Amino acid sequence: MTVRFVVPRPSAPSGGHGYNAAVLRHWPGSPPRMVELDGPWPRGNAASREALRAALDGPEVVLLDGLVGAASPQLIEEAAGRGVRILLLVHLPLAAEGGLSDAERRELAELEERSIRASWRVVATSRTAADELARQVGRDDIAAVPPGVTTAEPADSHDPPQLLQVGSIGPRKNQLGTVAALKSCHDLSWTATFVGPVADPDYAERFRAVLPATRASWAGPLQGAALDDAYAAADLLLHPAHAETWGMVVTEALARGIPAIVGAGTGAVEALGSGSIHGLPGAAVSTGQPGPLARELRRWLTDPARRQEWRDQALGARARLRSWDQVASELAQVVGQ
Q1: Gap between the Cα atoms of 217 and 215, Å rounded
Q2: Which residues neighbour 147 within 8 Å (Cβ) at sequence distance 6 or greater?
Q3: Is the overall model pTM greater than 0.90, yes or no?
Q4: Which of 43, 48, 155, 239 could be a cystine partner for 256, CB 3.0 to 4.6 Å?
Q5: pLDDT reported for residue 175
């Protein structure tokens, strides 16, 4: 069976790109051939859609990244008509991205639903997302293959406590909500670092404008050893995203014994609890206003026993997180069915 993995060409670090690369590195046996396509995605343009049409022609099975394919149901339908089996890999539902108008959100949701219906199989990267897609589209066979994590040494504790947020700078990741919560805790001792590339230039400009009012800094996008160093310097991950399928940064923090505060009602709650037996190594808060995050953060900063409890829970979860070998094996099994 010939399998091709069609993905967007990376332009900045992201969880989706990290997932795609990791499953290929750990694929059991010979991995699918990766084909990277230039955007602009998810809609593409005439040239990129023609490249996508060509990428969907030839192999028996195409593992198709949803960022590339989910807004092009006609091309999926054409390929399916030729007998190509399309497995759509949904990292994040298209309509969940930040910075969209209501009309854009509705249009993308409709296109993605049509693509999901036309695909041979569908995989989401969390049980939370798989269940939501199943309710929206009416398919009861959407598989969940959550991300894995690479083992890492536990981070040390720091005085004053060091806070970290990792994610692309844009409305979905909610850095402005974090800044507002930090400002309300200005009377307490802490430092904070934001890491991530710009996803929305207008939002990033607002973020840069308010950042000097805090003791926080923005390190820009980091990868490899530099990102490892950022995690090693942290005591708590802040991830109050408005929408999230999983949130690989959460399990990357847990792999280092770092607890997290995440957005309630998102897949990040699933990620936070993925290795836990007794309670969450952190908390889930409403993200509509900065108040809930500020209150939870203040409790953590002023209560040494709570900090130790969360750290102990994170260290306990660390040994039970999913490996990339497990993830790649599960995805390969779905592809081979």
Answers
A1: 7
A2: 15, 18, 19, 22, 125, 246, 248, 251, 322, 327
A3: yes
A4: 155
A5: 97
Share of the chain above pLDDT 70, in %: 100
- Residue 305 host element (H or E): helix 304-318
User: Phi and psi dihedrals of 220, rounded to 5?
Assistant: 75, -170
Omega of the bond prior to 212 within 30 degrees of 0, cis? no
Tokens 């990357």 correspond to 252
CB 96 within 8 A of CB 217: no
Helix (H, G, I), strand (E, B) or coil at 261: strand
Q: Which two tokens stand for residue 132?
A: 């939501």
What pLDDT digit, counting tens, does each position of 55-89 carry?
A: 999 889 999 999 999 999 999 999 999 999 999 99
- Which own/partner contact pairs does 105-109 have at CB distance under 8 Å and 24+ positions apart? 108/42, 108/71, 109/136
Mean predicted confidence (pLDDT) in 24-34: 95
**Angle separating helix axes 73-81 and 46-55, nearest 10 degrees:** 30
CA angle 251, 252, 257 (to 5 degrees): 85
Task: Give CATH 3.40.50.2000 domain extents, the chain.
Answer: 3-148+323-336, 162-318
CATH architecture, range 3-148+323-336: 3-Layer(aba) Sandwich (3.40)
Rounded to an integer, the average pLDDT of 139-152 is: 95
Cβ distance 196 to 167 under 8 Å?
yes
Residue matched to tokens 């002023």: 302
Max CA distance (Å), the chain: 64
